[in-house]
TrEMBL record:
Source species, domain of life: Bacteria
Reactions performed catalytically: ATP + protein L-histidine = ADP + protein N-phospho-L-histidine
InterPro entries reported for this sequence: HATPase_C_sf, HATPase_dom, His_kinase_dom, HisK_dim/P_dom, HisK_dim/P_sf, PAS, PAS-assoc_C, PAS-like_dom_sf
GO MF annotation, one: phosphorelay sensor kinase activity
PROSITE patterns in the record: HIS_KIN, PAC
Domain called Histidine kinase: residue spans: 221-436
Range of residues in the leader sequence: none
Domain PAC residues, every copy: 38-91
Record's protein name: histidine kinase
Enzyme class, first EC level, given as a word: transferase
Protein keywords: Kinase, Phosphoprotein, Transferase, Two-component regulatory system
Amino acid sequence: MYKADEIIGQSAECLYTPEDLQEQVPALEMGSALREGKGMDERFHVKKGGQRFWGSGLVFPLFNQEGLHIGFSKIMRNISDEVQAEANLKEERALAQTFVAAYPESVVILNSNWEVVNATTQFIEFFSLDKVNLMGKPFFQIIDGGLNLAELRTVLDKAIKEHRFHENYEISFLHPQRGARSLMVKPRRIYQPPNLLFSLEFEDLTENKAVMEEKDVFISVASHEIRTPISVIKAYGQILDRELKESKPIVKRAVKKINEQIGFMSSLIAALLDTSKITTGKLVMEKEVFNLCSLVKEQVESFGLTQTSHQIDIVNEEDAMVFADKVRTGSVVTNLLSNAVKYSPKANQVIVSVKVAGPEVIVRVQDFGIGIPQQEQSRLFQRFGRTESIKKTTIPGTGLGLHLAAELIKLQGGTIGLSTQENQGSTFYFTLPLYESFNVNTGSLENTSKFSH
């Protein structure tokens, strides 16, 4: 930066770049100031040490009292940061445009007024649109074909109002050439309000769903076909067990192992069949009114007879009438008990509780085993969703049990979840809504005829 005594008396040309001096920019600015009263000046200038900066200034002519021109004054501001920021923004926008153009999925970017800001080639081609007449148009006007607009608008309104930009939504679409399609819509926020921009990615699920349906049909058919020979083998295994009671210990152990493995295979086939039925929407729930606490105690007692390694204690026994499938709910309880014992090999206790909480009842099964790492918990209730840490152990399993349990509970209007800490144990729980007509004061059922049909 110049000091006053360093700059006063110097030619103003010392503030200009060599190329501007060659183009006679100072003379042009002063000429403009004389003609128009002021001259605009926004360009690179030079500091004392020769460094360049972007300056924005105005040049004014100076006159004496007689009106004679005696010089010029210049007001200048260093706007290098603003210019650099604008250049960076332009570069980012250009990069974003390039990214959108090259992005391999069907994506459209909208502003807060639902107007199209940008779109990928795949989006334009999939919906048979004209890119020239696309930008700036309201989204719900350009998508006027076979898309269920009411369904899509509901999805997007929910995402914006509830800030649920991390969720995906499935909608239907009637494609003019390819017929009915199932689309997954993935809304994502790009900028925060007030300059809200968000993207919509459309993924065509139709082929994948068809493949999954074929796979589920295959699993269902195969499981049915396998069930018959397994039943025969099981019957012969039971006969062997009965007839060879006086045999050598090695023979009795072999027969016991045969029956255990047959039981495992039978359970696996049943799980595969139920999973397939749930996926295809063909699972029939045989609902009835029953006391969930009594069912849990029965399952604990029955399960306790099949193992001797753990003491299973019930710490809360609150009566709770529910309207649910008793057999399948019992299988959920057994699955949680089995997992609690299986995944706590160094412990010797499992704690069970049945507790009423408002309009629902909560069943908890607590173990003191290996626990589950935070990053792996989200996979537990997925189909075949065994965690990586469990796969590294010798503990057997298919990854179907918890998935099936979760689906069965959801089908009955309940929820399922867990709290866990690695190496300290886990508590799995599920909830079911209380049967609304159960009178807790008299212990009797009222108006049960509503379910008689």
